Amino acid sequence: MQGSTFFMQVFGYEKNGDATFYTATGQLDGNSITAPLVRYTGGRSFGSEARDALEDSSPGSVTVSFRNGLKGTVQFPGEAPVAMERFAIKELTPSLSNPLAQVGLRGLHLLILDENLQLKTYRWAMLQRNAQDLPELVERIDEKGVDSTVPCTLDAEHGEFLCQSTDSNSDIASLRFQIVGGQIAGHATMKNAPELQLPLIGQSETAINHVNGERQQQNYWEYSIPGAYTLGPPPTATHQWMPVNGTWIVQDELTGKPGRGLALDVQNSTMVLQVFNYGANGQPTFHMGSGSYGSTGVNTLASRAEFALSQYAGGRSLGGAAQSAQMVANAGSVRIELALNREQQTPHVSQKGTVTFPGEEPKAIVRMRLDSQTSLADKLFGEWYWPIQRTHLVFNQESNGVVISSDGSVSCEQKYPARPDFVSCTKAGPPPNELSTNNFRFSLPLLNQGSNWIQIRDRFGNLQGLGNID
Question: What is the pTM of this model?
Answer without folding.
Answer: 0.90
